[in-house]
Design brief:
Blueprint (H helix, E strand, L loop, with lengths): L3 E6 L17 H15 L4 E6 L5 H7 L4 E4 L14 H8 L9 H7 L2 H10 L25 E2 L16 E2 L2 H10 L3
Parallel strand pairs: 1-2, 1-3
Antiparallel strand pairs: 4-5
Length: 181
């Protein structure tokens, strides 16, 4: 019986990663990969390879295309979160089937205002929201406090910290200034 060749695509631990606490992959991330290797190693009829060297990624995929890619690379190409959608785009260009969201889905779901509008349009309860354009002059700050000021274009909780909770206009303005708005 032929084994299914599966490539597990991961972030690159050799490169900086701005969203990690110390700007690099830490012990927890590396431990998670080891546990993944152990778990997948228990599956019969599959051969797993692990691709985490982004400098060689394109060449590796072209030289030995896998039957399937488990796309666990949510860090983006070269650990650049803005290039997260480029990973599935690359796999599509190379004609390699993969798991996870396609490039368009990643693009749409990283726009929090759009996701909120789509959810509200489907009757899903969503919190009140005001879009604040930090580059506008004058900046129109939220009118209801306390509130959470978060970046619009990022996935998951990226960019959300304890400092995003503000209790009045003065804290909102201080946060806007700290974020470069």
């Amino acid at each position: 019986m032929r084994h299914l060749n599966v490539a597990v695509l991961l972030g690159d631990p050799r490169l900086p990663y701005a969203y990690a606490v110390d700007g690099r992959f830490g012990h927890e991330e590396l431990e998670a990969v080891e546990r993944l290797r152990e778990a997948l190693g228990q599956l019969p009829d599959y051969r797993f390879s692990y691709l985490d060297d982004h400098a060689a990624l394109i060449d590796d995929l072209r030289a030995l295309p896998p039957d399937l890619v488990l796309n666990f690379c949510d860090t983006g190409f070269r650990n650049d979160w803005e290039l997260e959608r480029d990973i599935p785009a690359l796999l599509e260009i190379l004609g390699i089937p993969y798991t996870g969201a396609d490039p368009m889905s990643i693009s749409l779901t990283t726009d929090k205002a759009l996701v909120r509008a789509l959810a509200a349009g489907q009757g899903i309860a969503v919190p009140n929201e005001t879009y604040v354009e930090l580059a506008a002059d004058p900046v129109v700050l939220p009118s209801i406090y306390p509130c959470l000021i978060k970046p619009n274009s990022s996935g998951g909780s990226f960019g959300i910290t304890r400092d995003c909770v503000v209790h009045d206009a003065q804290e909102a303005e201080a946060g806007r200034t700290a974020r470069g708005g």
